[in-house]
Each structure stands twice: as C-alpha cells, then as structure tokens.
Design brief:
With 438 residues, the chain is an alpha/beta fold. The protein has 17 helices and 14 strands. Bound molecules: D-xylose and calcium ion (CA) (2 copies).
C-alpha cells in the first residue's frame, strides 16, 4: 500500500498526449546534444514545498492535507513524509531531493532532542535511498523560521544566536554528508536588515563570512567534497538581504576568500526580484566559474514577491538551458523550489506541478540545443566583437600593448569614429521565435 495509490507511474506520451498525468516533452532517455535528457536535467524534489507546505498564506490556513495519514508534528508523520517523498519521486523518475533540517523532523524546544530526531530520520531516509536510485542533491539548515533568528543567523546581533546557527549548520552538514549530498546551500533569508539605524553592516557581513568559513573547515574535515552554494535573493523576508544577486554574492565570496569552495545556486524567482532576468544571474555566475545549481521556478510579473510557481514559461526555460548548455552543464541540479497555487490542493496537483516543471525544462533544453545548433546567434555575437581580433588596434588593446597616448593619437588621426554596427536585437529575437515555434 502506497500513499498516492490513485496516481500511476508517470510516463512519456509525447506532445500530442492529452493525459494530465503523462510527460509531453520529458523523455528521460532521449539524446540531446550527445547526452540523455535525464543527465542534462538532474531534477530534484524540494522537501519543504512538496511534503510540508499546505498552502498557508498571510490570510488563510492550509488547504492541502499533507498529513499522509499520520498526526502532524510526530516522528510517525516525519516517516510518512519520507515514504510519500520516495513514492512521489519514483513515480516521476526524479533522482534527487533537497531538504532543510526542520523539513524532515518536527523541531523540538531543545536542540539536543531535534538532533536526536534528525539522526533517527536520516537513518530512515538512508534506508530508502539504499532501496532506490534516489540521491540527495543538497542539504541546508533552516535559519529563518525559528523566532531566535528574527535578527538573522550569522548576521545576528546576538552571539548566542550565532552559536545556535553554527550548531544547525554543523548538524545539517553531518546530515548532508551522511546522505551523500552533492552540495550544501546557504540561503541568507534573514541575513540582512530592516533598518540601517540599528545595523552595523560591516560587522554583520564579516560574521556571515566567519560562519561560512567555519562551515567550509568543518565540512571538509568530515569528508564533504561537494560545493557550498550561496543562493542569492535581494529581499523577503528582510527588506534588504546581503546576498542581493549573483554579482553581489560573488563579490562577497571573493572579498572573504571563500570563492574556491562556493558556487551559486540561482533561483529564477530571486533573480527577477532583484530586477534581473533569470538568465542574467546565470550568466554572471557562469562567467565567474560559479554556476553550481538551479532552483527551478518562476515568479509572477504582476506580483512583487517570491511566488515560487512551477515554471511554465518556455521562453525563460529556453534561455536558462541556453546558459546551462553553454556553461557545460551543472555540477548541481534543477531543484523545483516550487509550490502549487493554493487552490490546487489535491495529491494529483502535486504530480501535475512537477510534470509541468519537468516538461517546461525538457522543452527548454530541446529549444536551447536547437538555438545552439542553428548557430546564427553565436555567429552574430562572434562577428560583433570581431574588430578586436582582425584589426591591428583591436589586437593591441587585447594584448595590453597599447595605452591612452597611442589610442588618443589613433582617434585623432581618424577624426571621427564609424558607428559600431547594429545590435540587431529584433532580428535575434525573431530567430529565437522561429526556433521556438518552428
Ligand atoms: C526561499 C528560498 C529557500 C532556499 C533554501 O526563498 O528559496 O527555500 O532555497 O533555504
Ligand atoms: Ca523562492
Ligand atoms: Ca530557493
């Protein structure tokens, strides 16, 4: 007896299928640019949204029942969530999961008891992992829900709170290593401020770096060889968060000598909240050699907060996969940090949300590969900068063999410069459309 007895194993039926419980584009074994779709797209289930969140919002209680037949806040319930999660992943062919410490057990008042529960549940998860081919993508510590973190965790004004944050990071690292996780995430949900009037920004940022350094030292000492990730987000829950976007987080890591151990976990909805496109933050990460993992979701253009929707926007997924393919793939994976809309509260909706997300990224992968194989965009970009490669002055600029004096003489000799060549944005956008809708 399973938990989702009315839901079959989800199969690929192709684009013509009208079956809501089938993949239309995600065909795990299909070869795209020399690799199986399932290898391009290591999908992960987010424990928190899928197995914990019931659709609570600021104005109302939960509507989805996630008790899985047990009483909430018990270890029986925690185990039922494991059972539900593994059945869910197996039915969808998802090979990875991501978790926060407090997603997998009810948090106790005393951290010693929480840690004991975490040991018990991770034994149970490990058993399930050994019976299946499901693995852990990344683990993390929830350092934003408990009231003690109201002023932040690493950035808290209280040394006692800092110690509790450190204790949770230590335990979450122990769990991540025990479960063989590929990565460990720091999402700085409350690492920021509400007002500068009470905030020593320099001190807080240095303390966050101290906590991260301790995490790297401890992680490496217990055999964690994966990547640490910062997951940037500009705001929410705090008014301003220090890991504003990829560029800010990368600058922070470099300033504190943490850039060798960390990469980025880029979430689509966080990039758009920072006023960027998803692909912008992916590109910033990639050109710095720090594109690690992706939280695959999308926001809503009409809402200014983190809506964590299942991605259906094929255009954006295509641009994402274009960046990923160009970067040579991810060392991490695609975690659906996404939840059903509150009125979609049935078990079937949980599956349909993942089917939508997986199909959207499969389609994005197919279309991004077509764009690359088409070659016109690459060719245009190459040509656009060609004056640096095929003129004497361009070559000298690149090789550092010239200076302001010489360039100024060069300019004066010419008197006026030719226009730099059309950017052809509309033509390029048309190419994307013709590849998307051919
Ligand atoms: C919240 C974040 C969070 C991280 C993990 O906005 O997306 O869920 O992914 O702590
Ligand atoms: Ca989010
Ligand atoms: Ca996230």
């Amino acid at each position: 007896m399973g938990i989702f007895n009315s839901i079959p194993t989800i199969k690929y039926e192709g684009p013509k299928s009208k079956n809501p419980l089938a993949f239309k584009y995600y065909d795990a074994d299909k070869i795209v640019m020399g690799k199986k779709m399932s290898e391009h797209l290591p999908f992960a289930m987010a424990w928190w949204h899928n197995l914990c969140a019931e659709g609570t919002d600021m104005f109302g209680r939960g509507v989805a029942n996630k008790s899985f037949g047990q009483q909430y806040a018990t270890m029986e319930h925690a185990k039922a969530k494991v059972d539900a999660g593994f059945e869910f992943m197996q039915k969808l062919g998802i090979k990875y999961f991501c978790f926060h410490d407090v997603d997998i057990v009810p948090e106790a008042d005393d951290i010693k008891e929480t840690n004991r529960r975490l040991d018990e549940i991770s034994d149970y998860i490990l058993e399930k992992m050994n019976q299946t081919d499901i693995k852990c993508l990344w683990g993390t510590a929830n350092m934003f829900s408990n009231p003690r973190f109201c002023n932040g965790a690493g950035s808290s004004n209280s040394a006692e709170v800092f110690a509790f944050a450190a204790a949770q990071v230590k335990k979450a690292l122990d769990l991540t290593v025990k479960l063989g996780g590929r990565g460990y995430v720091f999402w700085g949900g409350r690492e920021g401020y509400e007002t500068l009037l009470n905030t020593d920004m320099k001190f807080e940022q240095e303390n966050i770096a101290r906590l991260m350094r301790m995490a790297v030292d401890y992680g490496r000492s217990i055999g964690f060889t994966g990547d640490f990730y910062i997951e940037p987000k500009p705001k929410e829950p705090m008014k301003h968060q220090y890991d504003f976007d990829a560029a800010t987080a990368i600058g922070f890591l470099k300033a504190h000598g943490l850039d060798k151990d960390f990469k980025m976990n880029i979430e689509a909805n966080h990039a758009t909240l920072a006023g960027h496109t998803f692909e912008h933050d992916l590109r910033v990460s990639a050109i710095n050699g720090m594109l690690g993992s992706i939280d695959a979701n999308q926001g809503d253009y009409l809402l200014g907060w983190d809506t964590d929707e299942f991605p259906f926007d094929v255009y954006t997924a295509t641009m994402c996969m274009y960046e990923v393919l160009k970067a040579g793939g991810l060392t991490g994976g695609f975690n659906f940090d996404a939840k059903n809309r509150r009125p979609s509260y049935t078990d079937e909706d949980m599956f349909i949300g993942y089917i939508l997300g997986m199909d959207t990224f499969a389609l994005g992968l197919i279309k991004a590969a077509e764009l690359i194989e088409d070659g016109r965009i690459d060719e245009f970009v190459k040509e656009r900068y060609s004056s640096y490669y095929n003129t004497e002055i361009g070559k000298k600029i690149l090789s550092g063999e010239t200076n302001l004096q010489e360039l100024s003489e060069y300019a004066e000799k010419l008197g006026s410069a030719k226009l730099p060549g059309s950017g052809k944005q509309e033509m390029l956008e048309g190419i994307v459309n013709s590849v998307l809708f051919n």
